[in-house]
Amino acid sequence: MRLLLFPLLSVLSVGYAVAGTDATQLAGVWQGKLGNADIVACFNQAGADSSSGSYYYVRHKTPIQLMQKTGQSSWMESGGTGSWSLGTPENGHLDGTWRAPKGGAPLALALTSVSGGGTENACGSDAYNRALESFPALQIGKTQDFEGKKYRNLRVADVVTIELQGSGDGLVKVNQKLRAILPRKAEDLADYFATRRRYLSSMGTATEDETSAEPVFWSSRWITVNFYRWAAGYGRNGIMLDYRTWDLRTGDEIQLWDWFAPKSADGGLYRALPERLQKYLFKGVAIDKECRDGYKGEGQYRVSLTANGIEFWEEAFGTGCEQDFVIPYAKLGPFLTSQGKAALRDLGGI
């Protein structure tokens, strides 16, 4: 489940900066032609320093940002792929010219108003976004290698998982659970579309969260996958690392903390170290004075499998005070619950 976060994003001033054309007339959603291609365009309300808009080809439905600096007449496409020169709208019609960055024959722009801007930032409106928000197709990545084992990424919108390549009933079950992470219906993508609209209305770009999924540990018995998400516009508070582990013999997902402590009532991914384990890990560790006095990490740790043992790593807050420990598998015995002892009894499985 995606965490609820409070945005740190500073919304930019957007709209159409006046440069020979009335900004209030241009703001809104338009449709028509760029050359012979059907397009839909939008321009946000006027801002003080810069102006934003967006457009997409009806055939491809991939938004392209338009930006105009105050005092300039042209609108520049993101990536420098082209520029727009626009006339003054008349009776709901807007004409202009598209030019390539390296010259060549210009293409005519002929647009008709779909909806006026009013007080709304048009690029975040239903009129502009409705056609962009159909359920996206499954994207299948190329086969990748992890220490001689093969997998590939599966993606729907900004949700990514992996598919393991191999045989065995347990692996088949794990793949079923990994695929179940993907969205299945439009309602599952409400946050995804809301993020895109927020950025379209503020900057004219369909920004998405940065996401990935990859194995970080994979043995004959266990696999751990890191699901990474950096929510757009939330800074450090938007980073989410979700390490999930499965048993490849049974297909069951494993909560590694249950190997060291009774099940947590809230099922949290981060937990405080059990007292005995904490004393063992911190024996001989020198803590800097500034970390003793001011650190706010509160000792919450994640657990993950590594080739050399179990790793305990503290939730990071960018202070440099976080602690990270690895206990070799052979030394884990005194700290394990009965569930943990049963899981690691066959060390060859690691």
UniProtKB/TrEMBL annotation:
Keyword terms: Signal
Signal sequence interval, chain numbering: 1-19
Protein name: DUF3298 domain-containing protein
Organism encoding this protein: Collimonas arenae
